[in-house]
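pinging the channel bc i need a second pair of eyes. not urgent but kinda urgent?? the chain im working w is below, pasted from the shared doc
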Amino acid sequence: MTEIVMPRLSDSMEEGTIVRWLKADGDHVARGEELVEIETDKATMAYESDAEGTLKILVEEGRTLPIGEVIATVGEGAPAGGEAPAPAAAPPAEPAPPVPPAQPAPPVPAAAGAPTAPAPERGGEERVFASPVARRIARERGIDLATLAGTGPGGRIVKADVEAAGAGASAASPQAPAEGDGASGRGTTTGIEPTRTQSLIARRMSESRATVPSFTLETTVDMTTATSLREEMKEAALEGELVPTVNDLVVKACAIALREQPEANGGWRDGRFERYSRVNIGVAVAAPGSLVVPTVFDADRLTLAQIAATTRLLGERVRSGEITPPELSGGTFTVSNLGMFGIRSFEAIINQPQAGILAVGAVQPRPAVLDGAVVPRMLMDLTLSCDHRALYGADGARLLERIRALLEAPLSLAR
């Protein structure tokens, strides 16, 4: 019998939520077969079975557990599957003998159509046999579980039952939203429950902002030469050949600068400095309802073309939901680029325990002074946020200045 535990799917993961079982209880599972979808602080991903045998699910969908907790077993035959049904049959048996069904009798004379209402009120939601997911959705939508008939095993109320009831309620009361329109003038306020990933991102960003004594440094880079170089590369590129983006140039420049300045390729954790031997650049990628930071490993050793190919692949894997835990781990520095939205500059929040994060703005034509004359140039703003515990002002300034110099001499990056 092999225990399947909540795995550590990223370096920052402390707990995970079971989103969906991809196999049913009692199914035969092969080694390496996708078993369950788990939501972490970074993404939702499938986890493969590391054993072969009959699956016994111990934790239901919607539950959140710390890493290392047992969520299922995979073994031979039905030892685990044969013992579990007995206790599972007990809960449905409890509601039959108890007093509640017999006590609604007094209210019957008063209202012939209301015998079902008193019973739920006496037992409350605690007496209702419902899955955790069903309970959560019911709370969000204000649905009384005691009024629902479960379609799950043993009369258990499942997610589909609550969603069906919610759809019926919406159709029956189209005027309900107006109830929330008060003196605030906001109209109806709809509460939206965040996903597990969104909640953890919010928590980590709040912790970073509240606990990291950060400072920011800004500089403007003349990208005129780099822009011309990219145009030349586009013209010379064969059909289907990748042309490095501005962000690829930035990743390469950061990698070289971090290799030359190892104290910046580190961080602060548990009251100690950390220095990393590898230069791994995390690249922030927007995903539906989330923000994912896949890693370009050993970026200082890759050519510009290799970095371009890697970032394209990682971006595609994030958007398709195929990104894997190893690809989200091990970053030593992060690059966040909002230039594609026309954003001139912004300040990014440090991804602990890393010492810094670089915010990249748009490349835009602006007036600049060159050789005593005001001329149009293609300029880009960079903002470096640093953890003052790991980097001092002069350290951050040297790093940002080196990144700027490399970008203004792009031929050094194209090698």
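so The longest strand covers residues 373-387. and Residues 304-320 form the longest helix (17 residues). — does that match what u expected or am i reading it wrong
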